[in-house]
């Protein structure tokens, strides 16, 4: 159980950080905007 | 902050405290779900320590509910983790929305990432200026973090002494919370279609697959629908929704 908790927490943090770190140029592509919605 | 900051009006003390008040209000409202999470988590078989670790370290409600939900229904912790991480990708999408608004770099961005959740996104995405977006993000993030974790601890301890939360109807509270999170997103036709298809697929898979699989399959629908181009998609609001501060920030574009 602990392993699942640690991996979930680490994975969630990396997912959050990835979202904040994507360059603006990528964000302007329509496909990205549709999925983000 | 290597580029010159765009000129923007300073935030008045009144606006500032109004935003902070809203952030705290959201924190209080979210704390209620923390009670529910704590109780459900110990009922699923996690210890109080494990439950609190999830709230502190993962700090994203839907993922936490998903993980303990899979464990509660007899699934392996690892398949709960996969379901949880899939729901966690939601925060990546929020990051895409708020990154240009907040414009934090280095350690500030690394710290802000931990607080990137439904509530902080909602309370920063519609602000008119970067200063307002940052205050909205920070006040909401800190308020939700404090109250979510306190409530998780209280719920876990109460849950342990009270027994199965289903006796009190708390299990349906989870479904209600999910619905409340999803509801504001259902304004566009596309999102309504995604929701209907996803629900239909998930319900049809429940009898024949392991716990957690229906949610994964339903999420694939959302991804596929996002990839389909749609010329009638006139309700996209991104461009005019972004504050002027972001649009004038053209220095970094390639």
Give the topology, please.
The complex is a heterodimer of chains A (37) and B (254).
Chain A: H1 2-21, H2 24-27, H3 30-36
Chain B: H1 13-43, H2 48-58, H3 61-72, H4 77-102, H5 106-114, H6 118-122, H7 130-162, H8 170-182, H9 189-205, H10 213-227, H11 238-241, H12 244-247
Helix pairs in contact in B: 1-2, 1-3, 1-7, 1-8, 2-7, 3-4, 4-10, 9-10
Describe this structure in words.
- The complex is a heterodimer of chains A (37) and B (254).
- Chain A has 37 residues and is an all-alpha fold.
- Chain A is 84% helix and 0% strand.
- Chain A has three helices and no strands.
- Chain A has helices at 2-21, 24-27, 30-36.
- Chain A is elongated and about 40 Å long.
- Chain A starts with a helix and ends with a helix.
- The two termini of chain B are 17 Å apart.
- Chain B is mainly α and 254 residues long.
- Chain B has twelve helices and no strands.
- The model of chain B is unreliable at 232-254 (pLDDT under 50).
- In chain B, α1 (13-43) runs parallel beside α3 and α4 runs parallel beside α10.
- Chain B folds into two domains: 14-180, no CATH class; 186-243, no CATH class.
- Chain B is globular.
- The longest helix of chain B is centred in the middle third of the chain and has 33 residues, at 130-162.
- Classes of the chains: A mainly alpha (37), B mainly alpha (254).
- Chain A binds chain B through residues 1-13, 15-25, 27, 30-37, and chain B through 45-46, 50, 53-54, 57-60, 63, 67, 71, 77-78, 80-81, 84-85, 88-89, 91-100, 102, 104, 109-110, 112-114, 116, 185, 188, 190-191, 222-223, 226-227, 229-230, 233, 236, 238, 249, 252-254.
